[in-house]
Backbone:
C-alpha cells in the first residue's frame, strides 16, 4: 500500500491510511505493537472501500482517506497485522 502511513492519537488509537482523523499524528510500528498488546476494548477495523485500517473502540464515522460514511468492518488481528505489514 504505497503512501499509507501509521498515525496514532493521545489515546493510543491507531489509524493507517493516506490521511487520518482529527487528533492523529504520524507514528510508527512500535506504537501499533503497543496498542495490540493492550487492546482495552479496541478492535481492528478496515475500510471496505479503500482498506484504511483503524485500531480503536469505534472506527471513524467517515473514512479520512476515501470520505465514505460507515465504511469500516471489524477484522481479525491477523488480517490487521498482514495489511499493515507486521
Ligand atoms: Zn476508506
Residues:
Amino acid at each position: 500500500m504505497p503512501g499509507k502511513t501509521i498515525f496514532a492519537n493521545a489515546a493510543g488509537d491507531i489509524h493507517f491510511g493516506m490521511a487520518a482523523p482529527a487528533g492523529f499524528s504520524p507514528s510508527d510500528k512500535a506504537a501499533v505493537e503497543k496498542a495490540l498488546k493492550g487492546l482495552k476494548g479496541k478492535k481492528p477495523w478496515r475500510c471496505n472501500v479503500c482498506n484504511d485500517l483503524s485500531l480503536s473502540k469505534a472506527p471513524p464515522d467517515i473514512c479520512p482517506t476515501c470520505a465514505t460514511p460507515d465504511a469500516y468492518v471489524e477484522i481479525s488481528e491477523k488480517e490487521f497485522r498482514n495489511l499493515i505489514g507486521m
Summary: Residues 19 and 65 are 5 Å apart (CA to CA).
